[in-house]
Structure formats: structure tokens, C-alpha cells
Specification:
Layout (H helix, E strand, L loop, with lengths): L1 E3 L8 H7 L2 E6 L4 E6 L3 E5 L2 E8 L4 H8 L2 E6 L5 H9 L7 H4 L4 E2 L6 E2 L4 E12 L8 H7 L7 E12 L2
Antiparallel strand pairs: 1-10, 2-3, 2-6, 4-5, 5-10, 6-9, 7-8, 9-10
């Protein structure tokens, strides 16, 4: 893999996140966890290239993200769709889902990443805040997406580097 600067990324973020999905991963060389995400964003905040991820409170991966300084976001080609779907529906709390998905963690960065990924963003956490029901201007969004009132925590991540297949 080669390293590119975030400003050199030539990808459609709507496709990357909304269609291809991503694995959000945190942990250390002893233990890591990942989850599939299809909600998020990328842009510029505080004059930095940033990613914005949203994690529900009951997700096991959230404990890893909360304890970590860095998080990775990994993107895969379409041949990994079945594994990404599995990783989004099974908890690492209940089984070794990364192993069962046939993925291999590389621990040579600030955050764990996957050998099989086409692209991985290594990100440093800058900010987090829980979404609040009273802040929704469009109440139908709250009703449609939060019937259990399990509002996401939003994380602002500084994209420090991007690793891509050569």
C-alpha cells in the first residue's frame, strides 16, 4: 500500500460510505473490534481534513473507539460485501467475528486496519458528542431512525493519512 494525503483523495464519498460501506475499527495489538457503517461524512472542519462517524451506544465497537486515540476506516471492493454485511449484524462481544469474516488485522499503524482493504484512512479523534432528541429540527428523522431512543454519538476524526493499494 502507498500513503496519500487526504487532499489527494479522488473518490466519491457518497459512493464510498453510502454504497460501498466501510469498517470502522479501533483497538490495539491485543484486542480490536470493527463494525460496518454506511452513515458518515467527510469534509473540512477546523482547517483539517475530517471524517464524521456516528455510533449507537449499544455497539460493542463504541467502547473501543471511546478508549482509543485513533480509529481506522477501511473500504473494500464489492467481493467483500457478504463479509461487510456479516460484520454489521454480529457483535464481536459474542464471537470472534473478524476471524470468522476471514479478515486479517495489521497493527502497524496508530489504529488497527485490514490487510484486505483497498483503502484505509487512519484518523485521530478530535471531538465527540451525543446526538440529542431536542436538537432535531425535522422530527420525522428522529421518529424514523430512533424508535428505541438510542441516539448515535458523533465523532469528528482528523484524517491523518490514507493508505491505498498501488
Amino acid at each position: 500500500m502507498k500513503t496519500i494525503q487526504p487532499e489527494a483523495l479522488q473518490a466519491n464519498v457518497f459512493d464510498l460510505i453510502g454504497n460501498r460501506w466501510m469498517l470502522v475499527t479501533a483497538g490495539n495489538s491485543e484486542m480490536a473490534n470493527t463494525m460496518t457503517a454506511s452513515w458518515g461524512s467527510m469534509g473540512v472542519l477546523w482547517n483539517l481534513p475530517c471524517a464524521f462517524i456516528f455510533i449507537r451506544p449499544q455497539r460493542y465497537t463504541k467502547t473501543f473507539i471511546d478508549d482509543a486515540s485513533h480509529v481506522s476506516q477501511s473500504f473494500f471492493d464489492e467481493t467483500w460485501r457478504k463479509q461487510l454485511s456479516y460484520l454489521g449484524t454480529v457483535s464481536g462481544r459474542d464471537e470472534p467475528k473478524i476471524d470468522k469474516a476471514g479478515l486479517h488485522i495489521i497493527n502497524d499503524e496508530d489504529a488497527p486496519r485490514f490487510a484486505e482493504a483497498d483503502m484505509t484512512m487512519i484518523c485521530r479523534k478530535l471531538y465527540h458528542q451525543d446526538l440529542k432528541e431536542g436538537c432535531f429540527i425535522e422530527s420525522s428523522i428522529f421518529s424514523a431512525h430512533y424508535p428505541l431512543h438510542d441516539l448515535h454519538t458523533m465523532y469528528v476524526l482528523h484524517i491523518e493519512k490514507i493508505l491505498v493499494n498501488d
